[in-house]
């Protein structure tokens, strides 16, 4: 029998973690401590060959790209903003689902000739307006995008929307959907080759669980 390779999986706290842990449990990987409450950044699991590291969501691609982790789970929103990287993205986990949306103030007509758009998602926003041939000024923010149109910083925002409650609470309405977002499993290209059997087995097991979930949705 071929021995199992040691695998490190990068996860981040928050919505995606809550939905990733049940998927991992179904393939027999249960952390030794609850990552949501533990202060430890490296956690062993019920499977001796698999450990978890807990990093910031935007750092997941960096850890995986540079081999600090063999695999990671992160949102498509983060991956598309870091499009220069060459991570393998073998599986849509169909969790952490939301939409990347263009939104503006309710009851406000058209913005001016060169609207200002506030967003954390600069690359996706530029690509969206470039594809339409529309000139906009993109203003980079790191959070609370919904505030920008309310104080006149921007005409529109581009942000993630799940229930729509945050937009509504701030008098904003969705205008267009740029793309559907979900969490992806990403793999370090070197690990994909050197730890092929173990990585492929984990990806296949997770794919089966995701497919079974799709059946009950
Ligand atoms: P909601 O009020 O449910 O539409 O959620 C909107 C807020 O949650 C915004 O501040 C978004 O940036 C954030 N958000 C929504 N979905 C996600 C997600 N899947 N991952 C991270 N942040 C999200």
From TrEMBL:
<comment type="similarity">
    <text>Belongs to the ATP phosphoribosyltransferase family. Short subfamily.</text>
</comment>
<protein>
    <recommendedName>
        <fullName>ATP phosphoribosyltransferase</fullName>
        <ecNumber>2.4.2.17</ecNumber>
    </recommendedName>
</protein>
<comment type="function">
    <text>Catalyzes the condensation of ATP and 5-phosphoribose 1-diphosphate to form N'-(5'-phosphoribosyl)-ATP (PR-ATP). Has a crucial role in the pathway because the rate of histidine biosynthesis seems to be controlled primarily by regulation of HisG enzymatic activity.</text>
</comment>
<dbReference type="InterPro" id="IPR001348">
    <property type="entry name" value="ATP_PRibTrfase_HisG"/>
</dbReference>
<keyword id="KW-0328">Glycosyltransferase</keyword>
<dbReference type="Pfam" id="PF01634">
    <property type="entry name" value="HisG"/>
</dbReference>
<keyword id="KW-0028">Amino-acid biosynthesis</keyword>
<keyword id="KW-0368">Histidine biosynthesis</keyword>
<dbReference type="GO" id="GO:0000105">
    <property type="term" value="P:L-histidine biosynthetic process"/>
</dbReference>
<dbReference type="GO" id="GO:0003879">
    <property type="term" value="F:ATP phosphoribosyltransferase activity"/>
</dbReference>
<comment type="pathway">
    <text>Amino-acid biosynthesis; L-histidine biosynthesis; L-histidine from 5-phospho-alpha-D-ribose 1-diphosphate: step 1/9.</text>
</comment>
<dbReference type="InterPro" id="IPR018198">
    <property type="entry name" value="ATP_PRibTrfase_CS"/>
</dbReference>
<feature type="domain" description="ATP phosphoribosyltransferase catalytic">
    <location>
        <begin position="56"/>
        <end position="207"/>
    </location>
</feature>
<dbReference type="InterPro" id="IPR024893">
    <property type="entry name" value="ATP_PRibTrfase_HisG_short"/>
</dbReference>
<keyword id="KW-0547">Nucleotide-binding</keyword>
<dbReference type="GO" id="GO:0005524">
    <property type="term" value="F:ATP binding"/>
</dbReference>
<keyword id="KW-0963">Cytoplasm</keyword>
<dbReference type="GO" id="GO:0005737">
    <property type="term" value="C:cytoplasm"/>
</dbReference>
<comment type="subunit">
    <text>Heteromultimer composed of HisG and HisZ subunits.</text>
</comment>
<keyword id="KW-0808">Transferase</keyword>
<dbReference type="InterPro" id="IPR013820">
    <property type="entry name" value="ATP_PRibTrfase_cat"/>
</dbReference>
<keyword id="KW-0067">ATP-binding</keyword>
